Amino acid sequence: MDRTILLDLTSYRMPYGKYKGVAICNLPERYLIWLRSKGFPEGKLGMLLNTMYEIKLNGLEYLLKGLKDPSHRS
């Protein structure tokens, strides 16, 4: 996995919706499942959401361990 993508998952924040301002890595799994059922958006945001969905689905959260910035924990 590309480390840049993993870093983006910890720093990129959801730009809209119920979880606006929450780092992608901190989105609840149920929300990612819901988004997937609706269809992820186009572009980088969609790619990051899909990647986080796959990470959570497959129990790979350990990939993000040590990358989370304490200022992005919300």
Question: How would you sum up this structure, described in words?
Answer:
- This is DUF3820 family protein.
- It is a single chain.
- This protein is 46% helix and 0% strand.
- By secondary structure, it is an all-alpha fold.
- It is globular and about 30 Å long.
- The chain starts with a helix and ends in a 17-residue tail after the last helix.
Task: Give the SSE layout.
Layout: H1 3-11, H2 29-38, H3 43-57
How many strands? Answer: 0
What general outline do the C-alpha atoms trace?
globular
Terminal CA distance reads 24 Å
Question: How much beta, percentage-wise?
Answer: under 5%
* Major sheet: none
Compute the number of structural domains: 1
Provide the low-confidence segments as ranges. Answer: none
Order of SSEs: HHH
The number of helical runs is 3
Mean pLDDT: 90
* Class by alpha and beta content: mainly alpha
Radius of gyration: 11 Å
Helix content: 40-55%
Pfam families: QSregVF_b
Organism: Marinoscillum luteum
Protein name: DUF3820 family protein
InterPro entries: QSregVF_b
Keywords:
3 helices; mainly alpha; 74 residues; 46% helix; DUF3820 family protein; QSregVF_b
Concise summary:
This protein has 74 residues and is an all-alpha fold.
